[in-house]
Amino acid sequence: MLKLENVTKKFGDFAAVDHLSLEIPAKQMFGFLGANGAGKTTTFRMILGLMDQTEGDISWNDGEIGYEQSHLIGYLPEERGLYPKLKVEDQLVYLAKLRGMSKQEAVPEINRWLERFKVPEYRTKKVEELSKGNQQKIQFISAVLHKPKLLILDEPFSGLDPVNVGMLKEAVVELKEAGTSIVFSSHRMEHVEELCESLCIMHKGKPVVHGGLKEIKRSFGKQKVRIEAEFDVGFLRDKEEVLHYKETSEGAICQVKEDKDAEELFEALQGRGFVRQFVLEEPSLEDIFIEKVGESYE
Amino acid sequence: MNKFFVILSHTYTNRIKSRAFIITTLLTIAAILVMANIQTIMDTFQEEGSGESTTAIIAEEPVASALSSSITGGELYEGGEEEAKKAVLEGEYDGLLVVEEGENGLPEGHYYMDQFTSSSGAEVRQALQQVKATIAAEEQEISGEALSVISSPVSFETTALEEGAKSEEELNQARVIVYIMLFVMYLAVVMYGNIIATEVTTEKSSRVMEILISSVSPVTQMFAKITGVALVGVTQIGLFILAGFLGITFADDTEGSLIQMAGLSNPDWGVISYAVLFFLLGYFLYATLAAMLGSLVSRVEDAQQIVTPMMMLVIAAFFLAISALSTPEATYIIIASYIPFFTPFVMFTRMGVGDVALWETLVSLGLLVGTIFLLGIIGARIYRGGVLMYSSASLLKNVKEAMQLSKKE
């Protein structure tokens, strides 16, 4: 388990991370959400010990993370970069050696991953000859080659086409099932909703929402009712159960507190005409974010 | 520790295999071989050239015959003065000496050549001087013996009283060796300092640095890199020395050759072992500085710029050492030899050509080693923060920011 207690990082007077407390359970996938500058990368750097926190404690399995554990940790930085002049294989072998692997151990793993990402022909190519997306795959390989116990991925899917995103997602899920704890950041809500059991939404260095995905949605206390009807549903706007009303082309989306309120709305619609759709929707992370932060996310 | 060697061998093999390294090394070896054989090469060209110089002489007897025998390549010219001048212009002769009788019956000379050179008529003038002296002596009725007694050089010897002082010849040899060592040291610090700064900046600019520092501590990285480049230096300089050794062995080692003059055929091993010591310390001092500076910038183009202040220091040290070659006892030289950034150059020179007490050496070495450690500690901290920094503010601001990034508040 990765534990952050009251972690603060200040650059001068500016608090990049402000009293962040987190518990990231082992063998799970944990999502870090937040706009640019929300403090995600700084948090990762502190977890990895690249920077010291101004205040607070970070521990992993009740110990500190230091260079002694570097063979247990994988990291894909947000700023991608490899040696441009080195061949892919030499590069990966070098980086694997720095994570405590021997060359004999590393080479078969490298071949396996290159096969898996369908780029075995790049083994002897220089990195600078590869496209950006393919460089990113190579870098992903360098982060997972040594079978880390804790894998930190900073924006792993940004800049990739959907096919490659799918390939990477598959690999990440497989690693999780093999017992790796994965922390990843994204500014795409849907990736986190799809992959993570628990998450944290950061805003200006502060955690706005934190916990299991299901609990967060359940405890949000609001639900969405999507209504499509043949008649004007504008009268719902004045119902006291409706917390937020938004007109759509076919009807409206109403936000209500609980299931009971939705039933009220359902009652109210009776006898007015044909209702094509009446759906009770879970709130999306996007809704939660907007509600908590008070502004749109992207 | 293991990772230290992984980085070290990576740095080393990558450098050794690089095209730049191979080309510079081969070119320098070629230059060394040429330098070692310069005597032979010069002789070869001398023989193939126009041969000895010739001088046309127009004079009356008996001066004419005396001159033509004492001037090498001297030849009596049978013809007019104008004709002779033309012959000089056409290159038939290198010069023309016209001797006329002056007022008091002594010969007066006028030397013509196509253009002035550094040795314009010096030999001719000396020959004429001798002829004049002989004539004058005859006129004044001074015997030949008396004349030779007067004109023979005075006997003059120098001896240093201080014990252990170097003899004139030893001193000259020491100067040459020290000069060569200084030059090698200067080149090495400039070259390898630049390589280190560029290596660090390249890793930063390609952003591979963040992966590196998440696997291995920046401090280990920095020192592994410095040591790796040091080994590259040892390899390269080793090759140079080997080339120099071979060159000297096969060169014309006769009396009076350049190599003999420099005392290179019989080197002073004491000076050389000091040179190695100061060389290594000087290298580590400047390499640490270079790694630190390199970590402060994020683009390779800026690396050259940021090491400029350091290069200034190296140049200053080099010139101080050069002036110490002739005045090793000057106060400013003695002071400079204790300033750690100058010590490797200046103290080494003082030891090579002057007389330095043991305590002086030890104090300056102590200061130097202390500074290396201090710089290592500060450098490691700046490096740790600097590698995460991608701003392009001024040097001082960057240093401040880097220190801030790497410290707990």
TrEMBL record, chain A:
GO terms, molecular function: ATP binding; ATP hydrolysis activity
InterPro entries from the UniProt entry: AAA+_ATPase, ABC_transporter-like_ATP-bd, ABC_transporter-like_CS, ABC_transporter_ATP-binding, DrrA1/2-like_C, P-loop_NTPase
Keyword Nucleotide-binding carried by entry: yes
Pfam families membership: ABC_tran, DrrA1-3_C
Keywords assigned by UniProt, alphabetized: ATP-binding, Nucleotide-binding, Transport
UniProt domain ABC transporter: residue ranges: 2-229
Family under the similarity heading: Belongs to the ABC transporter superfamily.
UniProt name for this protein: ABC-2 type transport system ATP-binding protein
Species name: Salimicrobium flavidum
Lineage summary: Bacteria, Bacillati, Bacillota, Bacilli, Bacillales
UniProtKB/TrEMBL annotation, chain B:
Subcellular location field: Cell membrane
Organism: Salimicrobium flavidum
GO cellular component, one term: plasma membrane
Protein name listed in UniProt: ABC-2 type transport system permease protein
Topology with respect to the bilayer: Multi-pass membrane protein
Keywords: Cell membrane, Membrane, Transmembrane, Transmembrane helix
Domain ABC-2 type transporter transmembrane: 20-380
The UniProt record lists the keyword Cell membrane: yes
Domain of life: Bacteria
Coiled coil: none
Residues making up the signal peptide according to the UniProt record: none
Residues passing through the membrane, by range: 20-38, 176-197, 229-251, 271-294, 306-325, 331-349, 361-383
